[in-house]
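Standup, Tuesday
Yesterday: got the pipeline producing structure tokens again.
Today: sanity-check two examples.
Blockers: none.

Example 1:
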Amino acid sequence: MSSDFETYEQDFGTLTAEITSRIGKIPKLGGDEKKNMVVNVEKQLEEARELLEQMDLEVREIPVQSRGMHSTRLKSYKQELEKLEKDFKRSRIAYSDEVRDELLGDDGNSSASQLIKLRDERAHLLDNAEKLERSSRRLEAGYQIAVETVYM
């Protein structure tokens, strides 16, 4: 059972890395390419949700002694998926802002667009801080697993 969970974890890690890469590309694309990328990311997010459901089912079947460790990891994966969904929304909003600016003929020099750029930069900094925090938690969880393994 635990090996199934680990397989799902690997699949989830690969999938989230691909989603993250595609989300980063969305604001840089245009037209149909962007629409196709958005559709692909939506499909991948759904696939990630399904993987989490499978992991949840596996955790329920794991013996009680090791269930806590797997539950904690599952919870962090759910948080990671929520973060990806928020990033995806932001990238789609950035797309909407670009289209609106194109239609209205915004040349990028207005104070409103400067404020938007500053807000985006601040959001990017906050995102990076969150990524750093998540990575720190993962390292701590990995260390905890190593310690538990040594003492068992």
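Example 2:
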Amino acid sequence: MSIMETNGGSVVAMVGKDCVAIASDLRLGNQAQGLAANFQKVFSITDRIYLGLPGLATDVTTLYERFRFRTNMYTIKEEREISPETFAHLVSSTLYEHRFGPYFIEPVIAGISAAPTASPSAVSSGTLAPPPGKKWQPFIAATDVIGCINFAKDFVVAGTASSTLFGVAEGLWEPDLEPEDLFETISQTMLNALDRDAYSGWGVVVHVITPDKVITRTLKARMD
């Protein structure tokens, strides 16, 4: 058995129209034995960046504190909020520093940023307007245990249910989903995938990140 399956857990992130969503299960286990049904695997880094950490439970806590520290140091030094793209490279470099004794974590990053646009007057209808000359750009990425980044324009997955999540997400995801449709898609993807993985489940928490708010919902799932 892989050490990545010791505590179980899965995370998926999806792109929508001017929004992004990230979801994880809530199970903490010791292989097939369930220990808790409220273990947090997704963390808020900034108002518009969320980080999923599936893998070994002890490394989840360690890495979250390390990323939080480095993000705060970046904010103090640069006097601005870190962007999702920069944070993804911060995650990658942190993991690569420990490549000879790696953390057993496969991070998933989800966020939105204000990207340059050719039309300064273009703004997102119905949402908080981005800075002049920019538009809201969803961003998702995942890395392996030594920090190799996988950028994607649709969805990324990690954890013990990865293979099932890939299959379900391929069938359900569509481009330019509105926030509520994106929530429904990522929720159904997680719930259906978790039914086929013994090391994940026991509830799902979903975060939908939009320019003006973050919608967080907790879903019930099978407890067997």
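Quick observation on example 2: Residues 3-219 form a domain with the Glutamine Phosphoribosylpyrophosphate, subunit 1, domain 1 fold (CATH 3.60.20.10). The first helix runs from residue 57 to 78.
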